[in-house]
Amino acid sequence: MMVSSNRARFKANERAYLDEWPMTEEQKQAVLARDLNRCIRAGGNIYFLAKIGATDGKSFQQMASSMTGMSEQEYQTGSPVVKANAIQGPVHPELGIAMDMSIQLQAANGAICTLSLSFNNDGPLGTVFRYIGDSATYIARYDDLVQSHSKGAETPVDVSKVDVSTNGIELQDREFFAAIRENREPNASVAQVLPCYRILDRLERQLQSGSCP
After folding, report:
1. Is the pLDDT confidence value at 37 over 90?
2. Dihedral of the alpha carbons of 75, 78, 84, 90, in degrees to the nearest 10
3. Could you tell me if 68 and 141 lie in one domain?
4. Per-range mean pLDDT, top range of 125-134, 163-172, 180-189
5. Same domain, 89 and 1
6. What is the mean pLDDT of residues 153-160?
7. For 207, phi and psi rounded to 5 degrees?
8. 20 to 30 A Cα–Cα from 80, which one of 25, 53, 151, 191?
């Protein structure tokens, strides 16, 4: 699935695409179920599985978290989240939401993860997202992604071949209907995102009560 035409054929009919290759039934079922641990046990290579993940719009981090039974946030910090705190600024009188918010997470191993959100930018709401990681910083502007550097110009990141579309809503719809056709659990199912929503529920209750953990 190194070319977009093959990724499109795979998403259109995953079973038919897999039948083109010399794979065992166990291997095919593991891929259709997106059970990555099962794929590995059946002889799968992580580099091949990464192609499937990219076709589904999944990062290595998301794939790895699904293999460990952790939420993405828990995997990001390396262990289960044991503390979660959120603070927000004044609520907008018309929108009914805070224009600034900060979320802090602490894992059992002591690692922390910080998320800061602000809609107080000079322009349309939600125009720029900055992702600061351990080794790189990226800026997303709608369909454009660039790597930011402390010195020098930004480096564009080519996302045109990641999937059949750069429209996230379209990709979610494609995955949902494909899962129905193939009688499997879709990616980002309720079961997969439930740990994250438990944390978000804790944070919402904290903001409503105005208390700190």
Report:
1. no
2. -70
3. yes
4. 180-189
5. no
6. 85
7. -65, -40
8. 53
